[in-house]
């Protein structure tokens, strides 16, 4: 569709959309690479030390050879919420198996300075009402979120059974005994009646496959293993005084880099930020939460009301007020307002997509103008502007990142979409120029587009010896994103094929936790040993999912990144990476009714 074809109400005269479309395309084309996900290095073998835990020493323990009712893989929000809900129903022997040295998942590993949640704490942090915790800020910082994970662990007695610094190696269904056999790298060989998987989508750090990466003689680490011994400072944001005489480089300008660069800029003698693609950085407007205000809103059921209100504002639910009021709800509100400008009879899919694009152009122009307003050097400001749709890459929100480039000693080294050319013994080379460095920090993200088995580190062997990797060879197949036929008593706790609410992932997890607790309680009350989805129910769910419009984030025309499989055709399996066709709010309403009916339609209890 060209601007000429658009309905009158969508023409925004001040924005030259054709020029922007052309510019977006040019910038995208600069970044397309034939190697897609293969451009990254797997952190293994001689690079494995990048995975070492800098935060907690590994304590020796005897292997477990017993039986538990429920084993859960992953000690992040998914495992904590599920175990907490199970505990509420009286199931106390839930064993969480976690590769880190404590609970927290992503918040255990990501302790880089400035780390904070990008979704408002009141809806992002799970079980606030149950634990009675009031977040200190609208967007809480990482130490508070990690402490909250520990709070959940303590309150629900989850430390008693947890196995930390433990990596699952095999999971096999024992048909004769109706239970899972679990083996780990610590010699454990125990059984569990039920199994939960909450390994998270972004937990395996990756390194850029830049020539010479192994030759660097200075100090280096990945942002998810921050080396405070080297930098000084702490996760609370204390000045990293040991960097005062250091030349530091950081590769990557995604959501992580946006949060830690202001802290590095303050501390380093010289900071070099190596950029391939700029992030879109919108207003953050963080603020402390006022306890008086909080005591007024925190009436019984408050967190569920806030969750539903945020989701309704985000994903269609006809909310009249916007309790959270942040960048995410603003984005949706603007798109809806554009659609409402269309006369009812003109609200076709094509016109709605045009309204979406129109709203996005306006938002991105605001974000680019913000760069000009905040960054003093014109050339640097120009290079910090993002030329793509806001949902092409993870939107960022920060009130100190752009300003950090006004600090003397902080240098943006833009690679014009090409990426770092080479890493040498003593520095990083871009466009033939070497930047000498004492320390190189990789803010290069996490594996996303790789195989599930490679990221989780294990496969599941279900009924009749079927492997999950084979069953999902042509794409994920589940009912509700939770159950897989042939894998009884195993539950997946993650957003895809469920609500798929990406702007607030914990909401997906806490709802699924509730669903699992109710199913397990039902099984126990009825003396059932097994819960399994029927093939027909799974097929029907997949058919339903495929009636939707597909994903609104990423997209083949977007600049490459993990949202769109690095710009490569993702193959037919990707069409299954979707959520409920009517949106997250519709899914949550549906699943509540499904649970409440007590029928658990589509499942067999045996
Ligand atoms: P990302 O994958 O988003 O960013 C990786 C960065 O490395 C990109 O800027 C990428 O450039 C760059 N890069 C890769 N290879 C090269 C190269 N050869 N030369 C130069 N640059 C290179 O990782 P992050 O850790 O920033 O974020 C991952 C995700 O984690 C986020 O998207 C978000 O979902 C989550 N997160 C959430 C936070 C929160 O909620 N508060 C905070 C931080 C992260 P290019 O863009 O060109 O590929």
From TrEMBL:
InterPro entries: FAD-binding_Monooxygenases (IPR050775), FAD/NAD-bd_sf (IPR036188). Its cofactor is FAD. It holds the Pfam family NAD_binding_8. One of its GO terms (molecular function) is monooxygenase activity. Gene3D superfamilies: FAD/NAD(P)-binding domain (3.50.50.60). Keywords: FAD, Flavoprotein, Monooxygenase, NADP, Oxidoreductase. Signal peptide: none annotated. The keyword Transcription regulation does not apply. Belongs to the FAD-binding monooxygenase family. This is Cyclohexanone monooxygenase.
């Amino acid at each position: 569709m060209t601007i000429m074809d658009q309905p009158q109400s969508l023409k925004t005269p001040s924005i030259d959309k054709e020029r922007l479309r052309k510019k977006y395309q040019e910038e995208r084309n600069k970044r397309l690479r034939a190697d897609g996900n293969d451009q990254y290095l797997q952190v293994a073998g001689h690079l494995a030390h990048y995975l070492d835990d800098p935060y907690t020493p590994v304590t020796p323990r005897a292997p477990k050879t017993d039986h538990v009712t429920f084993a859960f893989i992953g000690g992040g929000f998914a495992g904590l919420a599920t175990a907490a809900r199970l505990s509420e129903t009286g199931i106390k022997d839930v064993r969480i198996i976690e590769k880190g040295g404590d609970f927290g998942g992503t918040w255990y590993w990501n302790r880089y300075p400035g780390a904070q949640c990008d979704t408002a704490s009141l809806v992002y942090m799970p079980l606030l009402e149950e634990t009675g915790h009031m977040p200190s800020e609208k967007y809480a910082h990482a130490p508070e979120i990690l402490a909250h994970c520990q709070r959940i662990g303590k309150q629900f007695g989850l430390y008693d059974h947890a196995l930390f610094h433990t990596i699952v190696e095999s999971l096999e269904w024992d048909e004769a005994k109706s239970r899972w056999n679990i083996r780990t790298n610590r010699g454990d060989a125990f059984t569990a009646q039920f199994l939960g998987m909450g390994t998270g989508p972004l937990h395996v750090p990756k390194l850029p496959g830049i020539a010479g990466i192994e030759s660097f003689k200075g100090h280096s680490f990945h942002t998810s293993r921050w080396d405070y011994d080297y930098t000084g400072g702490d996760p609370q944001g204390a000045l990293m005084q040991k960097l005062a005489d250091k030349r530091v480089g950081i590769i990557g300008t995604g959501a992580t880099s946006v949060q830690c660069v202001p802290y590095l800029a303050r501390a380093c003698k010289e900071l070099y930020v190596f950029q391939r693609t700029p992030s879109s950085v919108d207003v953050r407007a963080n603020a402390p939460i006022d306890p008086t205000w909080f005591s007024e809103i925190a009436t019984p059921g408050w967190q569920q009301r806030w969750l539903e209100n945020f989701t309704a504002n985000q994903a269609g639910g006809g909310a009249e007020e916007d309790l959270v009021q942040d960048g995410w709800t603003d984005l949706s509100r603007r798109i809806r307002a554009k659609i409402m400008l269309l006369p009812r009879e003109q609200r076709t899919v094509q016109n709605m997509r045009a309204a979406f694009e129109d709203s996005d152009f306006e938002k991105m122009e605001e974000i680019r103008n913000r760069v000009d307003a905040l960054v003093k050097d014109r050339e640097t400001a120009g290079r910090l502007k993002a030329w793509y749709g806001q949902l092409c890459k993870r939107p960022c929100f920060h009130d100190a990142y752009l300003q950090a480039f006004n600090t003397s000693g902080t240098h943006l080294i833009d690679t014009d979409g090409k990426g770092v050319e080479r890493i040498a013994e003593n520095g990083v080379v871009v466009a033939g120029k070497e930047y000498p460095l004492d320390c190189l920090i990789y803010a290069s993200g996490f594996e996303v587009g790789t195989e599930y088995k490679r990221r989780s580190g294990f496969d599941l062997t279900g009924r009749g010896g079927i492997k999950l990797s084979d069953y999902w060879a042509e794409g994920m197949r589940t009912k509700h994103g939770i159950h897989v036929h042939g894998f009884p008593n195993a539950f997946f706790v993650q957003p895809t094929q469920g609500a798929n609410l990406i702007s607030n992932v914990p909401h997906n997890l806490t709802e699924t936790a509730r669903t699992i607790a109710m199913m397990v309680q039902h099984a126990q009350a009825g003396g059932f040993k097994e819960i399994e989805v029927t093939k027909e129910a799974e097929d029907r769910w997949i058919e339903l999912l495929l009636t939707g419009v597909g994903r609104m984030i990423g997209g083949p025309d977007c600049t490459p990144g993990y949202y769109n499989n690095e710009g490569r055709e993702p193959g037919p399996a990707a069409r299954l990476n979707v959520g409920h066709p009517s949106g997250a709010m519709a899914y949550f309403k549906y699943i509540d009714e499904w649970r409440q009916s007590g029928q658990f339609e589509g499942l067999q209890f045996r």
